[in-house]
Amino acid sequence: MTPYEAEIIDAHIAIENWLGRGEGQFDALTARFAPDFTMIAPTGSVLDYPALLHFFEAQRAGRPGLSIRVDDITLVDTWSHGAALRYRETQYLPGQAPTARWSTVVLKQEGDKIVWHHLQETALPAD
Question: pTM to 2 decimals?
Fold first, then answer.
């Protein structure tokens, strides 16, 4: 497993803990994302870093029982200080049908850490 693949898994564990149980440190969670981070959500809306921070602040423990599974991680490309990867993310909430999406992420090595620079999510149809 590459450090980039490990970061995707570790980030989703942190997000699951934060959103599902309110556990973790806000600063540690948000430090995973670059100040110029952008995300295109499955709805097509674009979030920047301040919007992401606001989302995490507002949604701490906002999804009780949330479970996130990440699989099918594929390395799309690498370069000297980063990589682009694709993965499938499935979210489970008690009493609700799971939701899944394909995501493509651009991660960059900055010093001794890997940070998220861009994320594109595309919703998968419900089964």
Answer: 0.95
